[in-house]
Amino acid sequence: MAAHSAVLSASKIMNPFWVGRLGNTAKVFGTTLIRHRNKTSFTPPPAKYGGRHTVTLIPGDGIGPELLNHVREVFRFACVPVDFEMVNVNSALETDDDMNNAITAIRRNGVALKGNIETKHTLPASVKSRNNVLRTSLDLYANVMHCQSLPGVQTRHKNIDIMIIRENTEGEYSSLEHESVSGVVESLKIITRNNSIRIADYAFKLARERGRRRVTAVHKANIMKLADGLFLQCCREVASGYPDITFDSMIVDNTTMQLVSKPQQFDVMVMPNLYGNVVSNVCAGLVGGPGLVPGANYGRDYAVFETATRNTGKSIAEKNIANPTAMLLASCLMLDHLNLNDYASLIRNAVLTTMNETRAGATMLHKVSSCHQNGYFLTTDLW
Amino acid sequence: MTTRSMRALSGTLKPLFSPRSPQRYVVAACHQTHKSTYTTIAPPARYGGRHTVTLIPGDGIGPELAKHVCELFRFCCVPVDFEVVNVDSTKTSEDDINNAIMAIRRNGVALKGNIETNHNLPPSYKSRNSLLRTTLDLYASVMHTQSLPGVRTHHRNIDIITIRENTEGEYSSLEHENVPGVVECLKIITRTKSLRIADYAFRTAREKGRRRVTAIHKANIMKLGDGLFLECCKEVASGYPEITFDSMIIDNTTMQLVSKPQQFDVMVMPNLYGNVVSNVCAGLVGGPGLVPGANYGENYAVFETGTRNTGKSIANRNTANPTAMLLASCLLLDHLKLHGYASMIRKAILSTITDSQLHTADLGGKGSTSEMVQSIMNAIQSSGPRTQRH
Fold first, then answer.
1. Can you give the residue ranges of the Isopropylmalate dehydrogenase-like domain (chain A) (predicted)?
2. Assigned superfamily of A156-287
3. ipTM, 2 decimals?
4. pTM of the full structure
C-alpha cells in the first residue's frame, strides 16, 4: 500500500512525459496491493488478465459515444488498469443480434459501462426496448442512484442526500401488453413476492453498509391493493430483520410533493419500477439535472453502470456541450465495484474540484462549458 | 404585467367585465335544452332560485373545512343549499357511498372531502373515492396550478392546467393472483376514453385561450398502452390547428417540472401520471392546502381539493389550510354560473393569502383555520353590500 502511494505521488511530481514509462511499475505494484473488501454477498472473480480488468463498453446513441470517449481518455491519462471491449448496438435494426452480442460480452466480463440505447417509436411494438432487454436478461434487479447536492452547483434545494433503490426487472416494465378487444389495451404490471423480497433485502443491506438510518418504501397500495400491497408487505417483513433501521412508507403522490418542498427529509427510498423512474428523475432535477447523477444497475453476477436518468440526449449530440460529469462519476462507481478504489477517488476528487471551479461550475453546466474544456480541467486536476 | 400574471388575476378581474344577473333571472335563463356531447351543463336552480349541492364531508380535515364553506356561503348569502351525506369509511358495506352517489345524481353537483381508504380492510373493498368517480363517469380531473401572490416558493410564475383521465388507466382496481406470490395488475387504456379526454383537454385549452397542450406518457416502454393514448391525442390535435401539441415522457416531465416549470401550459395524461404530476405541481406552488381540483363528467361535477389528502394528522386542530377547499367552492360557484359570488370570494381569499401573518402551518406560519376564514369574511364585508349581518 505504501509503495503504491509512493509511486503514485512520485509520478504526480514528475513530468507527464514520464508517465508512460513508469506506468507499468505502478500497475504491477497496484495489482498486488489491492485490498479485497469483505462483502456480504457473493462476488464473482474479476476478469483480470495480467492485472488489467476488461470491461464491456456500449456507446449507445446520442451523447453516449462522445462521453464514453472522454471516459476512455481520462482512464488512459490516469493509467487505470481497465481495458474496454467495445460493443456497438444499432438501435435502428429490428433484429436482436446486436443486443445478444452485447449481453454475451457482459456475461463474459461481468461489468459494463453503457450509454443509453434509443428506443425508436416508429418500429413495431414487438421490438422491445433494448435497455430493458439488457436489464432483464442479466437480471440486474437493483438500480441504485445516489443523489447528492454537489458543491459548486447552484440549486434551489441544498443538503440533499438520498439513495434511491428501484426494482429494475418487473413492475410496469414487463412489456406484457395485449389488445384483446380492438381499442382496449391491457398492460400488465407484475409484482412478485420473490423479487420484492430481494429488492427490499438489497435496500436494507445497503442502508446498513452505508450507515443509513431510515428506509422509506414508496407505493400506491391504497389503489393497487394486491400489487403494491404485496410489495409493501415484503418490505415490512424484511424490515423486521433490521431493527436498527427505521422503516416507513409513503404513497407516491405524497412523496413527489414532499420531494419538491422538503427533500432533506428522505434518506433511503425503495420502490417498484415505475415509481422509481419518476422519483429518481425528480431527485436528479433537484440536484441540478440529468448531467450530474450517475446510476448503477446491480445483479447477482453482473453490474452495469450508466447515467442515472438514462437520457440519450439526441438534441445535443456531437455539439461538444454535453455534461460529462454523470458519465465520469458512473465510471468511478465502476472502479469502486472493481475494487480500484484509489483510482476511483482520484477521478472523483478531480471531477468535484472541476465542478467547484468558477469557469466550469458557475455557468450553466450543460450549455456553456464544453466537453473538452471539462476534460482538460479534469486532467490538470489529476496532477 | 406579464401574460402569465394577467392570467393569474383574470379570475378576480372577471366579475368586473361579465354581466351580473340577479337571482330571479337565473331561473328563466337556465332552460337550455341543447346538450353538446362532452360539456357538463349545470343543473338549473329549481327551488326558489336556490341550488342544491351535495356535500360529502369525508374524513380527516374534510368535515371542519366543509363547515367553514357552509359558514362562508351563509355569510355571503350565496343561493346554495347543501345536502349533507356522510360516508363512513370504516364500514365495508357500500350503502353509504351508494346513497352519496344517488344524491349526486339527483343534484348534479357535489363538494366533497377525501374519504379515507383503510389499508386494513380486505382488497375487495374498493377505494370509495375511486368508486364515486367511476360510477358517475367523472372522466376529467382538472387542476389549475397557479403561483399565488404572497406565498413564497422556490419557483415563480407557474400557470399549469393538468387534465388527468379519471376513470381508467392504472386505477381500474383489476388485480389478481393466479400463482401465489405473483400479482398481476391490469392497466387499461381504451380508445374511446383517450379520445374523450384528449378532446376535453383541447376544448378547455381553446376556451381558456391556451397555446400549447403536452401529452405525458411512457410509450417507449408501454408501447401499446401509452402508444394508443398518444395516438388518440395526436388525432384530436389535428382538429385544433391553432394549438401546438407535443408530448413528453413522464420521467423527463417530472425532471423539467422541478427545474423549469414555467415551460408547461396545459398537460393531458392518463390516471397515474396525472396523480404524480399534479402532486408535483401542487408542491411547486406551495403545498396541498392551496390548490383546488375539479372532476367533470358528462352529467355531473364534483369539486374537492386538488391533491385529495385526508389530512388525518392535522384533523380537528384548527391548523388546516382552508384555501384549497374554499377555492374549490369558488369553482363550484363558477360551474353553477354564480360568477359574481365566485369572484367575490376568490378576491377575498387572494387578499387574505397575501398577509403572511395569517398563513397556516403548511405555509410556514402560525395562523389558524378559523382566523383565516374570519379574515376572508372581513374582506368580503369591506368589499360590498352582499353580506348578511348576524
1. 54-378
2. Isopropylmalate Dehydrogenase (3.40.718.10)
3. 0.82
4. 0.83
